[in-house]
Amino acid sequence: MLIEFCRRARWIMVVMACAHRLVWAAGDDANPFGVGSSAQASGLYASWMPKMAAAGVRWVRVFPEWNQIQPWAGTWNWSLMDSMLNTAASNRLNLSGLFLYNAQWVNANTHTFPTNNYPAWFTYVSNVVHHAAGRVRYWEVWNEPENFAAGGTPADYARVVTNAYLAAKAADPEARIGLSVASVDILYLEQAIQAGAADHFDYICVHPYEVLGTLRSGQEALFMSIVPTLRKMLAARNPAKWKVPIWFTEIGEELGGAVTAMTQAQDLVKVYAMGIAQGVSCIEWFEAQEEVDVEEGLNKVKEAAELAKDLRVRLAEAENEFKEIKKSLEEA
Length: 332
Prior knowledge:
Shape: globular
Number of strands: 8
Order of helices and strands: HEHEHHEHEHEHEHHHEHEHH
CATH superfamily: Glycosidases
Strand order of the largest sheet: 1-2-3-4-5-6-7-8
CATH architecture: Alpha-Beta Barrel
CATH topology: TIM Barrel
CATH class: Alpha Beta
Structural class: alpha/beta
Helix content: 40-55%
Number of helices: 13
């Protein structure tokens, strides 16, 4: 009886937390449902954006690289950026922007930080934010700097971030700047913050692929610890920012082996539901492309959000049952 009581109590609390957040997500325009695209599939955005919009997605993470926008010093090409923005707008999608990577005229290896030309980086960020003002508000600084910045250190990343923050805010005071790391690399974030990035960001972006892989082995608690652990670090290293929004700007899994279309859809539902429950502001499933259709999983998430609206009645019934169980235990 006591075991049953504990199980019921646990699930009542979980359902109450999830229901509250899912109802909010379903009814708020700033909802957390998003997708991202790889460099290879980004050229197909005109094909998959309408599908994602139809599935209920509201955020897309796709953006041209610095090298595409400014192919050489003093020359700016806004055609691809404007096309992406216009396509997103026509589908009522919000585009989350990125500042990435280096420009070939600054360093032949574009997967390096612009440590030899921060003024050029500052100008690039300033012009991009100014050009997109009113159309893009959220900007992620780089993509997985541990993986895509050869020889770069957290201290180098801190300088990249501070320059981007100052340039973006000057160009558009409404711009929001996000730190980015691979996986949930809290140590890298901590080191960058201590090296100078403190107070120069408005949200945190993580890519918890590895943690997603634990869900089917019964380690949901590990997944649910992502946001609390990040907040604990922020409270210690940058207290003024400990409540900033947390985004999952990449998370997903490739079809093949143990990952079937059905398990992928199930994991997608888990990611959104459990991410929302722990307070993640936006989740961008990786990836959206023409060949891999994530509509089924996203539609299941929408259905879950709609069902959450009816949970208030069920919660009232569960609370009454909870009281009855408690009463019977006290009388035993």
